[in-house]
Design goal:
The chain is of the alpha/beta class. It has a single domain, classed as Rossmann fold, CATH 3.40.50.150. It is built from seven helices and seven strands. Helix 4 runs parallel beside helix 6. The longest helix is centred in the N-terminal third of the chain and has 14 residues, at 51-64. The radius of gyration is 16 Å and the shape is globular. It starts with a helix and ends with a helix.
Length: 178
């Protein structure tokens, strides 16, 4: 994600990033997850398949002194997300999915499945940020209208907040009145 797009995205997310657990898929240098932590996320998981690049993330984390609140996985994001091992299930996530744009064409079915898996696994109140380019058809996603789309040519960024289910809201109301 380009610097100017990243800045606008974090301005859009604003204080909603606080107390989330950052999940940086296709992490590259880790800039998205590290930015989230610097803005109040409680920690982060960085998933990057390219081993030399995952070492760059580790170096960046050490430089910033964030070793205690982060974890770097040199792994295939598509495979790892099916199990999403190591992620807190009771803390909302801030997921950043910014793969090479070609994945949305060359690996379309895998990308659609990955986004669906993230949406299904994310705890209530999680934020999901997906960066694509104009070639991606957002209508292919389940509930395409749940995504707020912003265009920053050539990037298109979709942001979705995972709402709590009515059952969870009822449980929360019951516990608040007890």
């Amino acid at each position: 994600m380009k610097d100017r797009v990243r800045e606008v995205v974090f301005n859009l997310l604003g204080p909603r990033i606080r107390d989330k657990y950052a999940v940086d898929l296709f992490a590259g240098t880790g800039a998205l997850g590290l930015e989230a932590i610097s803005r109040g996320a409680i920690g982060g998981m960085f998933v990057e398949q390219h081993f030399p690049t995952s070492r760059v993330i580790e170096d960046n984390i050490r430089t910033l002194g964030m070793e205690d609140q982060t974890h770097v996985l040199a792994a295939d994001t598509f495979i790892w997300m099916r199990r999403h091992e190591g992620l807190p299930l009771s803390t909302p996530w801030a997921v950043f999915c910014s793969p090479p744009y070609a994945f949305y064409i060359d690996r379309r079915e895998e990308m659609l499945r990955l986004i669906a898996e993230v949406v299904a696994a994310a705890p209530p109140d999680s934020l999901i940020v997906v960066e694509t380019d104009a070639r991606f058809d957002w209508q292919l996603l389940d509930e395409p209208d749940a995504w707020s789309l912003r265009r920053f040519p050539p990037a298109v960024v979709g942001i979705r907040q995972i709402e709590s289910s009515p059952q969870e809201d009822n449980n929360r109301d019951d516990s608040e009145t007890s």
